């Protein structure tokens, strides 16, 4: 899965194949998710999408996000410490994040994903985990902290909102 957003036709095909309808609401939710750089919550997507689809409901936005996750074109991120709302990511390839503990905004890091990072961290770790009866299927790396100032391209509102 690449990092470039899918065009409407490809998204329609993927939803069709999964037996899910490609509604204007789902297209709008996906479109906003791709444009928002801060990995928005469902509520944030709802507020943004309402400008183009005023009668959309929060429940519809939730269902659209879950549909996008189900067909593998979006990812649901775990809520941060003290947060109850999940965030959503239009990227499905493995990548790293940094998260602002004040606003909850999550951003991508430009660093390429390294599948061998855990072994570099501790060559014994794989053996330790298998002794625990644990099979590793992946890992997440997320830096946490605070924005001390606004950098270009890290608006919490996302592009065009
Ligand atoms: Zn991301």
Short recap of the structure:
The chain has 6 helices and 5 strands; from the N terminus they run H-H-H-H-E-E-E-E-H-H-E. It is α+β, with helices and mostly antiparallel strands and 161 residues long.
Description:
The chain has 161 residues and is an alpha+beta fold. The protein has two domains: 1-93, Winged helix-like DNA-binding domain superfamily/Winged helix DNA-binding domain (Arc Repressor Mutant, subunit A, Orthogonal Bundle); 95-148, Dna Ligase, domain 1. Helix content is 34%, strand content 11%. The chain contains six helices and five strands; from the N terminus they run ααααββββααβ. It has helices at 8-17, 24-35, 42-49, 58-70, 117-121, 125-131, and strands at 75-77, 87-89, 97-100, 106-108, 142-145. Strands 4-3-5 form a three-stranded mixed beta sheet, with no helix packed on it. A two-stranded antiparallel sheet has the order 1-2. Helix 2 (24-35) packs across helix 3 (42-49), helix 2 crosses helix 4 and helix 3 (42-49) packs across helix 4 (58-70). The longest helix has 13 residues, at 58-70. The model is unreliable at 157-161 (pLDDT under 50). The structure holds zinc ion. Zinc ion is lined by residues 39, 89, 91, 95, 97, 108.
Q: Regarding CATH, which class of the largest domain?
A: Mainly Alpha
Bound molecules: zinc ion
Parts with pLDDT < 50 across at least 5 consecutive residues: 157-161
Q: Which structural category fits the helices and strands?
A: alpha+beta
CATH topology of the largest domain: Arc Repressor Mutant, subunit A
- Measured between the Cα atoms of the first and last residue, the distance is 26 Å
How many domains would you count in the coordinates? 2
The radius of gyration computed from the alpha-carbon positions, rounded to a whole number of angstroms, is 17 Å
Mean pLDDT: 89
Spell out the helices and strands N to C: HHHHEEEEHHE
């Amino acid at each position: 899965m690449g990092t470039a957003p899918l065009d409407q036709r490809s998204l329609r095909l993927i939803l069709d194949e999964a037996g899910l309808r490609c509604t204007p609401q789902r297209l709008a939710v996906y479109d906003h998710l791709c444009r928002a750089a801060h990995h928005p919550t469902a509520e944030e997507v709802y507020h943004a999408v309402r400008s183009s689809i005023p009668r959309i409901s929060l429940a519809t936005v939730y269902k659209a996000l879950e549909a996008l996750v189900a067909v593998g074109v979006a990812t649901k991120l775990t809520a941060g410490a003290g947060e109850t709302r999940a965030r959503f990511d239009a990227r499905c390839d493995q990548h790293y994040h940094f998260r602002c503990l004040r606003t909850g905004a999550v951003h991508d890091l430009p660093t390429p994903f390294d599948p061998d990072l855990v072994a570099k961290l501790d060559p014994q770790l794989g053996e330790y985990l298998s002794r625990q009866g644990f099979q590793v299927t992946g890992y997440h790396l997320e830096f946490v902290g605070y924005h001390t100032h606004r950098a270009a391209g890290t608006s919490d509102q996302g592009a065009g909102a």
